[in-house]
Amino acid sequence: MFMGAVANGLAIVIGGLLGLIFTFIPEPIKDSIMKIQALVIMTLGIQMVVQAEDIIVTLLSLIIGVVIGEVIRLEEQLNRFGHWMEFKLGDKHAGNLSQGFVSGTLVFIVGAMAIVGGLDAGLRGSNEVLYTKSIMDFFIAIVMTTTYGLGVIISGVPAFLYESGIIVSASQIARLIPEYILDQMILQVSATGGVILLAIGLNMLNVTQMRVGNMIPAIFTAMAMVYLLNIF
């Protein structure tokens, strides 16, 4: 049941380790690679956003989610964990660990594939979606690690835990939520995640300095709003 989540976590770690090998690449080339990657991430985000059936729900989910993230200072907590890892590993080996950890975590967990794959594995025992996601994340991890370093590799852990949590919860979700609501949830989560990916891309291009870590609760807010709107 968990083979898809395991494969995804390992793909990120292995891809990241390969990325460390390529850290000798000259800075101008690494900068160009990072900008191309940012553009691709933004393109993926746009594709996800255009699927939104109700942009107002997307907007409200992001506003409520960001407020929650700001109140609990989620990005600060993630950065604190990253800095703790930097201290344990040593700056020489960690590089920009906290930024890599936060950015990598967001890139790998945001989006419909993680949710759809987790639900598919939990409900039907099929890991096909997660295997496909693993291949994509493998190459993303290689490129991200050349810029952000070890933090990207560590982000494979929360990606595995996130997907495993969805798999474990899948049977309970199916009992509580009708299939038509579940389909709407997936679309809305995809749209909300797309906006977050756009924010990540803009940050990578140094266009903005948004606290994207504080946007994570918006993903779960979107699920809750779709459920409540259908119930009431």
Brief overview, please?
The protein is mainly α and 232 residues long.
Explain what the structure shows.
This protein has helices at 3-21, 27-49, 55-72, 74-89, 91-94, 97-109, 112-124, 128-148, 150-154, 156-176, 179-204, 217-231. The protein is mostly helical and 232 residues long. It has one domain (3-231). Helix 1 (3-21) packs parallel to helix 8, helix 6 (97-109) runs antiparallel to helix 8 (128-148) and helix 7 (112-124) runs antiparallel to helix 11 (179-204). The chain is globular. The two termini are 34 Å apart.
| Secondary structure: number of strands | 0
Which series of helices and strands comes N to C?
HHHHHHHHHHHH
Portion of residues in beta strands equals under 5%
Q: List the quaternary state of the chains.
A: single chain
> What class, by secondary structure content?
mainly alpha
Domain tally: 1
Low-confidence stretches: none
Question: What characterizes the major β-sheet?
Answer: none
Gyration radius, rounded: 17 Å
Helix content: over 70%
- What is the helix tally? 12
Envelope shape:
globular
